[in-house]
What we know:
- With 174 residues, this protein is an alpha+beta fold.
- It has seven helices and ten strands.
- The longest helix is centred in the middle third of the chain and has 13 residues, at 65-77.
Amino acid sequence: MIDTNILSVEKQGRHRYYTFASPDIANIVESFAGLISTHKEFKKIKTPKLNNFTFARTCYDHLAGKAGVKITNSLVEHKIIKIQKKDYEVTEYGKKWFLEIDLNVDAIKTKKRCFAYQCLDWSERKHHIAGALGASLLEKLIEKDWFRKKQNSRELIITSKGKMELKNRLNLEI
């Protein structure tokens, strides 16, 4: 199905996530969905329940969960970053925005790792920002006490200061 461009696959570590290769294919398959029986034995695939861990956590060294996805989407909506295939690129406006929170994008680009790419969030099934920029952003959010790490866990806690700053800077309610 991949070879015939019906499905595309996104590799994320040892996991593989499959999606329809185009909106046209998705529309065709969706039209068949009306034929599926809704009797008791039919089980819909459920997303994980929202809890503190699925809300905000680290994914390796960057922010993930509902909070990570919402922040990433807001950065895109405000034209701070833009999507370039599977990567993110910081706009000129974005460079200024990141400097306002003490992140120098040009310095981050000199790090010997991928700058900014899309990382598929397992609980949200949407992308958040990873790479050197994602790691630097999370480090800065913790340094500024917008988020705190929960001891012995990947879970993150958003502070009241963080909620206020995200509202002021990105018009984002978390």
